[in-house]
Amino acid sequence: MIKEKENTETTANAGTKAPIIEIKNLHKTFGKNNQVLKGVNFTVNKGEDLVILGRSGSGKSVTIKCIVGLITPDKGEIKVFDENVLELTKKELNEIRVRIGFLFQSGALYDSMSVRENLAFTLRKHKRDLSADEIENEVMEALDNVGLTEAVDKMPSELSGGMRKRIGLARTLILKPEIILYDEPTTGLDTITSREISELILDIKQKQKTTAIIITHDMACAKLTADRIIVLKEGTIQAEGTYEELEKSEDEWVRSFFE
Q1: Residue that terminates a domain, selected from 176, 201, 216
Q2: How many domains does the chain divide into?
Q3: Which has the closest alpha carbon to 233: 32, 37, 95?
Q4: Are residues 11 and 117 in the same domain?
Q5: What's the pLDDT tens digit per position in 220-242?
Q6: Residue 46: its pLDDT value, please?
Q7: DSSP sequence for the chain
Q8: φ/ψ (deg, to 5) at 38
Q9: What's the CA gap between 21 and 213, in Å, rounded?
């Protein structure tokens, strides 16, 4: 059943599994008048891929940045792995972050480092007990997961947009996160490459048993990856349901995303 023009807590359609992410009454204002989030509520169940849709400025990216503590909300509650993120110490928050992968829209690679060095840097920062051989094995396994082992010695400037996205994803996967937050994973890519990235998101879910939130404007990506979709409008949840339910919505604004 589709929920429209409500801002009550949504319920996942993934059986009786307990939520791995819980967002309650989330508010965030920038400056004096730019209220981006106005009481957002939703849950994500373990093993679920949730897509968040919305126009630019609707609060999509702000929401997932709040989840990992990159942005502090003005009010609300964020629970991840049953821990209240807003009450954690810096050390406790960092321990949570290691279990959450964040794929930034740009890929966020270090331009002065090779692909190998980009991935190894992440490992050395978070897993200091690994030997050089173990780091190399982890790097190659992560690249194999995204189909780019041959790019290990390339510099970011030598990579196409699609390859940069894949390497960024490999760097995210190298810590074997339980949750992955994808911020516009197909933006700027051609149709074929966008589909390849969407299929890779599905493949990762099946192989790594991850849970994900996917921020996207790409409706082909949403259709392929989403177990469930929520639609944000001006900082509140306008609708929630499956792709098939929402494309038949009686709300003309919601339906406009699917046309």
Answers
A1: 176
A2: 2
A3: 37
A4: no
A5: 999 999 999 999 999 999 999 99
A6: 94
A7: --EES--SPP--SSTTPPEEEEEEEEEEEETTTEEEEEEEEEEEETT-EEEEEE-TTSSHHHHHHHHTTSS--SEEEEEETTEEGGG--HHHHHHHHTTEEEE-TT----TTS-HHHHHHHHHHHH-TT--HHHHHHHHHHHHHHTT-GGGTT--GGGS-HHHHHHHHHHHHHTT--SEEEEESTTTT--HHHHHHHHHHHHHHHHHH--EEEEE-S-HHHHHHH-SEEEEEETTEEEEEE-HHHHTT-S-HHHHGGG-
A8: -130, 50
A9: 10
Q: Tell whether 42 and 76 lie within a shared domain.
A: yes
Spatial contact of 38 and 236, defined as CB atoms under 8 Å apart: yes
Q: Which domain holds residue 165?
A: 109-176
* One-letter identity of residue 243: Y
Query: Residue 4: what pLDDT?
Result: 44
Last residue of a domain, one of 176, 209, 231: 176
| Entry pTM | 0.87
**Antiparallel, parallel or unpaired: β 228-233 and 236-241:** antiparallel
Query: Would you state the pLDDT for residue 17?
Result: 67
Q: What does R_g of the chain's alpha carbons equal in angstroms?
A: 18
pLDDT score at 255: 92
Burial letters for 154-182: b for 16+ Cβ neighbours within 10 Å, e otherwise? ebbeebeebbbbbbbbbbbbbbebbbbbb
Output the six-digit token pair for 196.
């390849």
Per-block average pLDDT, block size 10, for the chain (259 residues)? 41 58 96 92 96 91 92 95 93 91 78 93 86 94 91 92 88 92 90 91 92 94 96 94 94 91
pLDDT at 56: 86
pLDDT recorded at residue 27: 97
